[in-house]
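diguanylate cyclase, Spongiibacter nanhainus. Tokens?
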Amino acid sequence: MPKVLVVEDNRSLASMAKAMIEDIPGFEVVVTANGTEARSRAQEDPEGFSVALVDLNLPDAPNGEIVPVLQSLSIPVIVLTGYFGEELRTKMVDLGVVDYVLKKNISAYEYVAGLVKRVHLNRNTKVLVVDDSPSVLSMLTRYLNIQCLKVITATNGAEALQRIGEHPDIKLVLTDYNMPVMDGFELILQLRARQHKDQLAIIGLSSSGEGRLSAHFLKSGANDFISKPFSYEELLCRVNQNLDYLDQIAEIRDAANRDYLTKLYNRRHFFITGRPLFHQTVFQQKPVGVAMLDIDYFKRINDQYGHDAGDIALRHLAAMLSTEFSDSLVARFGGEEFCLLICDDPDTTRHKLDAFRERVSQSPVSQDGHHFSFQVSIGYASSVSESLDALISAADANLYQAKEQGRNRVVSDSDATESQAASASTRRR
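Tokens:
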């Protein structure tokens, strides 16, 4: 869990900062009241701190002496200050702090909490800067590195496309207009042919003397525009705003694709993702199969222990599926039914499913002091290659056979064929 170091001698302000940051899931806050204590805690575990929130005027460090100490330990610093002036601003920018925030009201701490989250996320975020000016590239790289972003550079549009090919996980592009080989407008048009605004953010850059360029950039597909020269603070706000937008869209999309109770993918996402994956796998002549899984006598769990117990059982099974089949597409289809698209050898998959079934039966669940176990039936199909829907239907038919044969078992294509042959032989007798 990432840690945030709060260095503040005012207890009420320290408590406010701690509460605001801990409202963000996944952060641990360590509070210190002076520079000496902050130095000690930081030196104990410098890599454990994602960012430090530092009061500029501490009893033993009245002029911000603790800031470069923490920076020397590679801990990004956000400064809190009770006053603001141009001299202080210049000093903070020269020091390379992430940002400086005036301790004016509660909204300042809300801003800081969001900035803490952003800095942490930036560690795994790639940004492409495209400009033919070495000095501009150097300045932008420094500014973005202060924000903990991973910076990749290019000197023209053609080179930028090459970098995108090498790093398809780039989330933000900052591009100049006037460049050799390929200008910024053509670059944006080509990027937009591949990725929409909610997948890749683009910020146009150009001198303030070219007033019409901002509209041209935006009409070409840019998310935003910054006129040169610009301040570090403006760049910080624009970059953060665009990255936050991408994250919010991704969170909304992920929520729409997941089952609320189990956090597994839902039926809709299974088909959207599964159909192209199925066709690609069949085209490559690789093995692919579908497993349909159902909790046995699920209604009895609800009737005997309550619907909360049923929900716990579903979440418990979902967690086991996510762990055991992390390389497969796993979804809750509805009720107590789950579906897996598995790209692996059929015999290997058959044995893995049976071992999983056994582990489920030996994994008890607790609810209000009651302990109960449950079992699952699984139908697995891998011999159908016409379509994903046909494969699901075959797996569902095998699941029905598993239920008919007594539950708590796996029935695959070969098992179903043997069962049908045995039934036919019995009828002939």
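The domain at 124-255 is CATH 3.40.50.2300 (Rossmann fold).
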